[in-house]
Amino acid sequence: RLLSERLFNNQSDAKVNYSLVPSVIFSHPPIGTMGLTEDEARSKYGVDDVNVHTSEFTNLYYAVSEHGSRTLMKLVCVGVEQRIVGIHIMGLNCDEMLQGFAVALTMGATKSDFDRTIAIHPTGAE
């Protein structure tokens, strides 16, 4: 779509930001990622400017099962404003979660934006 805007609607700045393309490995459990890894962020912004926030939990879908599966999440943030430059998820429905998070990251979301958001309960994305 951006290519057609550039070619036919004179929008020369309509270009894909390839650093913010979400990607999912449809394994069991699935793994989703978008943006910079921890190491990439530290190389680009410096060790002192990068903060990493992690979470690990059992998805409610497995709450009463003996065969529960963990969900792991990581936010890679930079600067005093804690702008999110990377998100990495492993667990049930992470592909669906990442689709929503992709919009937020593309818009320049911060950790405090995520913290202020009222989550849908009970879901893994909360």
In short:
This protein is α+β, with helices and mostly antiparallel strands.
3D architecture notes:
- This protein is an alpha+beta fold and 126 residues long.
- Helices cover 27% and strands 27% of the residues.
- It contains 4 helices and 5 strands.
- The chain has helices at residues 2-8, 38-45, 94-106, 111-116, and strands at 23-25, 31-35, 50-58, 70-78, 83-90.
- The chain has a 5-stranded antiparallel beta sheet.
- Strand 1 (23-25) and strand 2 form a beta hairpin.
Distance from first to last alpha carbon: 32 Å
Extract low-pLDDT stretches. Answer: none
Strand order of the largest sheet: 1-2-5-4-3
Count of helical regions: 4
Beta-strand percent range:
25-35%
**What is Rg?**
17 Å
Let me know the largest β-sheet.
5 strands, antiparallel
Given the C-alpha coordinates, what overall shape results? globular
Helix/sheet category: alpha+beta
Give the ordered list of helices and strands. HEEHEEEHH
Blueprint (SSEs and pairs):
Elements lengths: L1 H7 L14 E3 L5 E5 L2 H8 L4 E9 L11 E9 L4 E8 L3 H13 L4 H6 L10
Antiparallel strand pairs: 1-2, 2-5, 3-4, 4-5
Which descriptors apply to this entry?
126 residues; alpha+beta; 5 strands
